[in-house]
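Section 5: illustrative case.
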């Protein structure tokens, strides 16, 4: 799911991924493996044009948001994409909501291939 930050903050899970496919995104991330997140944005159909990666567990500031917005504008991005982990750390930043370039949260969910869920359940039951 790709949800506008303002709606995500209110718990509204309105998916905008289909309406944003192919759009130029600037990736803002403070997670352990930001390259994996970049790959996920590609798989989601977005077109990354730039990024700002912070160390894992980064505490975002208004200055960070201003820098990201300037870099996103310079890169020609239509939107800024963050993970849910990052979005949680932006909840109290008014700058996260007042961007000229809209901020979106890319929600990621785990899906099992073929009968992977059943295999995991069997292994879990055998462990117990």
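Designed sequence:
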């Amino acid at each position: 799911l790709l949800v506008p930050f303002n709606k995500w903050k209110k718990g509204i899970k309105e998916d905008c991924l289909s309406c944003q496919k192919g759009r130029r995104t600037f990736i803002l991330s403070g997670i352990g493996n930001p390259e994996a997140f970049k790959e996920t944005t590609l798989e989601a159909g977005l077109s990354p044009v730039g990024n700002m990666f912070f160390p894992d567990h980064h505490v975002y500031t208004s200055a960070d948001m201003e820098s990201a917005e300037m870099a996103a504008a310079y890169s020609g991005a239509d939107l800024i994409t963050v993970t849910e982990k990052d979005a949680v750390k932006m909840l109290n930043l008014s700058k996260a909501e007042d961007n000229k370039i809209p901020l979106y949260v890319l929600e990621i969910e785990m899906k099992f291939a073929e009968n992977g869920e059943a295999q995991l359940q069997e292994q879990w039951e055998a462990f117990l």
